[in-house]
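quick one before i forget lol
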Amino acid sequence: MTATAKPASGAAARDEVTYMRPVSNCAGCGDTKVSWSVMEGMRRYNREHKLKGKDRYEVVYVADRGCGNLQGWHDYRIVDTIFFMGSGVIIGEGIKESCSDKQVVVTASGDGGYNFNLNAIKIAGKNKRWGAINVIYNNFVIRMTGGQIPLETDFDKEGVSLGYDEVIRVSPFHINDNADLFKNLIGRYLNKEKVMVVADGVCVLDMTRDARAAGVKLGHFAKTEKCLELKFAEERARVAREEPEKLKDLPRFKCRQCGIGLRCHALLNNDPTICQGCGSCKQFPCVTDCLSFEGLSFADSISINELSMMSKKR
C-alpha cells in the first residue's frame, strides 16, 4: 500500500489486507521509514510540478533480499520487488532499460549487500545513460547470515570513486526531511545525476539494546483524543456492548495511516508499550495532527553517547 497523509479511496479494504498480514519488521525499523520517505518524496515531486494522471512520475523501488525487505511488501508498498542479496542495484539497471520514461528506479541494499556486489554499484555509478538513486541501509551488521560484522566501509570515499556525484548521510527516522530530500533527488535523477544515500543506524533492535545498557530511557508515541482510530475503537466497543447485532456491519478500522505508512506494530495496535523509541512519529503528517512523541528517541540522535548526555540533562 502507498502511504499517504490522507486516507485514499479503498483505504478500508487495504486496511483489511494489512490486518490479515501484519508487517513483520520491528516497530521502529529504520528500513521501512526510509521507504516511506522514498514514496512520499515522489508524491511531493508530482505535486510540486503539478503532474497528474499519465503525466505523473512513479517510483520503482528495487531492493536486495535482506532484513529491510522480508515482509508483506505488496500490501505495505515497502519495496516493489526483491532479488537475492546484493543484486538490487544491477537488477535496477536492467529495469531502467525496459521501464517507461515516467518511472524512476530507486535501488536499495544493506551494508552487507553493498559489499557483496560492488561491481554492480560501480556499473550503476558509471552508466551514463541513466541517473541513479542508490540507498544503503547501514545497520552495521549482516543480519541475513547470522549477525556478522560487515567489512569496514567508507561510503563517503567509496561512493565517489564508484562514480556517484554525491554521497548523502541521513537518519532514517527524520522521515519528513528525508521525503524532501528524495523529492529533490528525483529531479537530479532525471538529469542523469548519481547519488548514494546512506541511512545510518537503521536496526532499532541493536540501538535499543545499547541504549538500555547505557541507562538511556527512551520515550514512546502518544495520540490525543482527536485520533480517528481511537474514537472509532470506542464506538466499536459501544456497539459491541449495546448493539452487538450491528457489529458485523462496521469496518475494523477508521484510520491507520500512521501505522501502515510507517509500518509500525505499535501504531497499528495503538500500544505504546511496544514502541521502540524510533521517534519517526514526530514528523509524520497525521491528518488530524494527533500524533506526537514523548521523551527521547533515535530521531534525536542515533548516537548512544549523545542520547546518554541528553538523558542526564533531563
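fyi Residues 210-313 form one domain.
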